[in-house]
Write a structure and sequence with these properties.
- The complex is a heterodimer.
- By secondary structure, chain A is of the alpha/beta class.
- Chain A has one domain: Alpha-Beta Plaits (2-Layer Sandwich).
- Helices cover 20% and strands 24% of the residues of chain A.
- Chain A has 7 helices and 9 strands, in the order E-H-E-E-H-H-E-E-H-H-E-H-E-E-E-H.
- In chain A, strand 7 and strand 8 form a beta hairpin.
- Helices cover 19% and strands 32% of the residues of chain B.
- Chain B contains 2 helices and 10 strands, in the order ααββββββββββ.
- In chain B, strand 7 and strand 8 form a beta hairpin.
- In chain B, the strands form 2 sheets. A 6-stranded antiparallel beta sheet of chain B has the order 1-10-9-4-3-2, with no helix packed on it. In chain B, strands 5-6-7-8 form a 4-stranded antiparallel beta sheet, with no helix packed on it.
- Chain B is α+β, with helices and mostly antiparallel strands.
- Classes of the chains: A alpha/beta, B alpha+beta.
- At the A-B interface, loops of A face loops of B.
Chain lengths: 192, 166
């Protein structure tokens, strides 16, 4: 079986919220989307970016979980918290560098994107990638994405000096190898 | 049951693995080892406490004159402090020439106890703890131990506190 990869291209995102609604259709968390579509800078641009779980090699959410509730399985997919273990402390929500986990206060449990594990584990594509009209979220083999796209897939991120390698790829300009994120720079806001 | 490829991982990380596949149940041997070692540790700790208790220095109390005979009548009390000025004590004259004294601090939460003459007992008003006047033992309520007794000695007309019996 061909190895499929998950590719996010924010430059293709049109903010249609299809992925959000498709995600909310899922039986396991009906009505609650596990995907975020955010405006990057609402005042100046209509650009949006979809955020699904990047499925880190060393998932920070799982590392910080005091209840041992977040597990990564053999496919490298980081699962939602285990219901019997999760204590709803929101440590993972605060720790995730990508801001993925969601604290479901109604359930007292953290839930997050698990790459539609029920689907992907049996060879189907994740819900969001199937409905994305611009294929900003694409679940395709690596060869295909390299052939079809101008951008390059990258899965190494630097948060300051902290490298984070992920299972999900971000499409970046061809001359970029790793996405470097200056956290302080993003937090900085000019005085009004 | 240790996995060979996780030598570099710390033990706690091994036990609380991030990978679902690396999760393991504690083996019977590991559990028995834990039980035995913990029991040995507990036993050693008890012995250590015992030995430490043997070598504990006994507190030496200074003698201090706290009252004179006839200063208080039968059923009356006198408050004094012993051995330090901050240690409040209460003395009760229970019968002619018969005096008892206790620390005034309730053993529950250190409220000041007072003498309740009608019922002939010491009462702590905070949580309704009652102590016996005859020996300071707990009659009722939350206090866990009896009141420390101030040992009194009579010397002529003076009542002298010579120590505290817990």
């Amino acid at each position: 079986m061909t190895e499929y990869g998950f590719f996010i291209d924010p430059s293709r995102c049109i903010g249609c919220q299809s992925c959000v609604n498709a995600c909310a259709e899922c039986e396991t968390h009906r009505g609650y989307p596990m995907i975020h579509v955010d405006f990057i800078d609402r005042r100046n641009t209509i650009n949006t970016v979809p955020t699904v779980c990047m499925h880190c090699d060393k998932p920070t959410c799982a590392e910080v979980c005091p209840a041992d509730a977040i597990k990564k399985n053999e496919d490298g997919v980081v699962q939602s918290s285990l219901k019997p273990r999760c204590i709803g402390c929101s440590n993972c929500v605060l720790a995730c560098p990508f801001g993925v986990p969601k604290m479901m206060s109604e359930l007292e449990q953290m839930m997050k994107c698990d790459m539609c594990y029920d689907r992907t584990s049996s060879g189907k594509r994740p819900m969001c990638a199937t409905v994305c009209p611009s294929q900003a979220l694409a679940y395709v083999p690596m060869e295909q994405i390299l052939r079809e796209r101008r951008e390059k897939p990258a899965n190494l991120f630097f948060f300051g000096n902290e490298p984070v390698r992920t299972k999900v790829f971000m499409m970046v300009p061809p001359d970029v190898d790793a996405v470097s994120i200056d956290v302080l720079d993003y937090m900085w806001e000019p005085f009004p | 049951m240790r996995r060979v490829n996780s030598k570099s991982e710390s033990l706690w990380r091994e036990e609380f693995a991030v990978e679902a596949a690396a999760e393991q149940y504690v083996s019977r041997r590991q559990f028995s080892k834990f039980l035995v070692l913990t029991s040995i540790g507990m036993f050693a700790g008890q012995i250590w406490i015992l030995v430490k208790n043997w070598f504990r220095p006994t507190t030496v109390y200074e003698e201090k004159s706290v009252a004179v005979i006839g200063e208080i009548g039968i059923g009356e009390v006198k408050l004094f402090s012993y051995p330090e000025p901050a240690d409040a004590c209460i003395m009760i004259c229970t019968a002619a020439d018969h005096y008892v004294a206790y620390s005034q601090k309730c053993t529950h939460l250190s409220c000041a106890v007072y003498y309740e003459r009608e019922a002939n007992r010491l009462e702590c008003p905070c949580h309704e703890g009652y102590f016996s006047v005859s020996d300071g033992s707990v009659l009722q309520g939350p206090p866990p131990r009896s009141l420390p007794t101030v040992v009194l000695k009579r010397e002529g007309d003076n009542l002298i506190a010579t120590g505290i019996k817990v």
